[in-house]
Design goal:
There is one protein chain. This protein has a two-stranded antiparallel sheet with strand order 1-2. About 70% of the residues lie in helices and about 5% in strands. With about 300 residues, it is an all-alpha fold. It has one domain: ABC transporter involved in vitamin B12 uptake, BtuC. It is built from eleven helices and two strands. Strand 1 and strand 2 form a beta hairpin. Helix 2 crosses helix 8. The longest helix is centred in the first third of the chain and has 32 residues.
């Protein structure tokens, strides 16, 4: 059970990163963006491409940062993937969502997000194939932290957790200590009032996509670092990320972080009493339970 708890915390960090961008976009634009999880796939594959590119151009960068399987090339590739994913999020908004919200309603946006998700997923499958890929071919062994009870953890998992926490802390400082952070929070809380106050709504919406895309890229890379990369990363993680967003409360960045850890821990602890084949249903149960007990989530507030 302790092993499941530890695994849940590690998974929760990835879900929290993915839920941050989703909750900001949902609260501001008021639609359920089912294509957000595909940004994780874009980030994971972008990092893979740049990792191979940097490794080919500068062979010295192929050295691993001990004791991790992470190489210097992949470290640089992570930064590049964040930029690519952020640009992709803005491009998707400009080409699809901006046009749809100008002509249609929230329901049209939801259907459009389904279409975007399918297009992105199939494009990745067409370009990279359906086979799973790895950042590193080296065998990574887990470290035994305890033998009674047995507790195993990989250095890559610990790195992903610590890096995610550092990024979340940095985002917290930006949101709470800077002018841009105040503007982002104002737009997320009340876009109309923020616009009346002189905040350029279009610029803040673009910035929200940048933040969401960057966080999603990190989540995708960390997922690929601790698992495998495949075009269906978004399909597999869309429900847990939505569950994390709903549990925390739509619009609350801090709620998204907490929701991610709760969903990750809850899903892994459920494996103690449920067969692994039923684990995909756990996020459904969490969503239903939260909607019944607290419809606005732990930190969410009702909106008119």
């Amino acid at each position: 059970m302790i092993q499941n708890l530890v695994d849940g915390v590690l998974v929760g960090a990835i879900l929290s990163l993915g839920a941050i961008g989703l909750t900001m976009a949902m609260h501001t634009l008021r639609f359920a963006n089912f294509s957000h999880a595909e940004l994780l796939s874009i980030g994971a594959y972008s990092a893979l491409v740049f990792d191979r590119l940097f490794s080919a151009l500068w062979p010295l960068l192929t050295a691993a940062i001990a004791p991790l399987s992470l190489t210097f090339a992949l470290s640089l590739a992570i930064v590049a993937s964040m930029a690519i994913t952020a640009a992709s999020a803005i491009l998707i908004d400009r080409l699809v969502f901006k046009r749809v919200r100008a002509l249609g309603g929230e329901l049209s946006m939801v259907f459009a997000s389904f279409g975007v998700a399918m297009v992105v997923r199939n494009l990745l499958s067409l370009i990279f194939g359906l086979k799973t890929k790895l950042y590193s071919q080296d065998i990574v062994f887990a470290v035994v932290l305890s033998r009674d009870p047995l507790l195993l953890v990989k250095y890559d998992q610990v790195f992903a957790l610590l890096a995610a926490l550092v990024v979340m802390l940095g985002l917290h400082l930006v949101l709470s200590r800077t002018t841009i952070g105040y503007a982002l929070r104002a737009v997320a809380e009340n876009p109309a009032l923020a616009q009346v106050s002189g905040i350029r709504l279009s610029r803040m919406i673009a910035l929200i996509w940048v933040v969401g895309g960057g966080m999603a890229a990190l989540a995708g890379v960390f997922y690929g670092l601790t698992n495998q990369i495949s075009p269906v990363i978004g399909r597999d993680l869309v429900l847990p990320i939505f569950a994390a967003t709903i549990v925390g409360g739509i619009g609350s960045v801090y709620g998204a972080v907490l929701g991610g850890f709760l969903v990750g821990i809850g899903s892994n602890l459920a494996l103690v009493i449920l067969p692994s084949g039923y684990s995909p249903a756990v996020p459904f149960l969490i969503i239903i339970a939260v909607l019944l007990l607290r419809p606005n989530g732990l930190f969410g507030e009702a909106r008119a």
